[in-house]
């Protein structure tokens, strides 16, 4: 790919990003979203986060589901969920989960 093609792709992506992000600002007040859809959109960020995290916790390197106690990521994820249920603080949950995962790896309990 030539330098010109790379710049064309970058500019096209910038325009596409600006158009999609500004569309709500430009026509947002003219479109009425039904209350049912608004209620469903409240769960979109948590669904997206779960879709990002779940494969990393459940799949091994070969792409197979790994649900037993030999999965250090799954154990750290479960511990993080328990920590969040107790403390309700996101930053503490992330730090606690990473500490558990690192401790499991350093103690060679899991590979």
Index terms:
111 residues, mainly alpha, Brnchd-chn_aa_trnsp_AzlD, AzlD domain-containing protein, transmembrane, membrane, transmembrane helix
List the helices and strands and how they pair.
Blueprint: H1 3-27, H2 35-41, H3 44-58, H4 72-87, H5 90-106
Helix pairs in contact: 4-5
Question: What report would you give on this structure?
Answer:
With 111 residues, this protein is an all-alpha fold. It has two domains: 32 residues; 67 residues, no CATH class. It contains five helices and no strands. Helix 4 runs antiparallel to helix 5.
Mean pLDDT: 89
Low-pLDDT stretches are: none
Counting DSSP H or I runs of 4 or more residues, the number of helices is 5
Distance between the termini: 40 Å
- Helix/strand structural class: mainly alpha
Kindly give the count of domains: 2
How much helix is in the residues?
over 70%
Q: Into which percentage range does the β-strand content fall? A: under 5%
- Anisotropy-based shape: extended
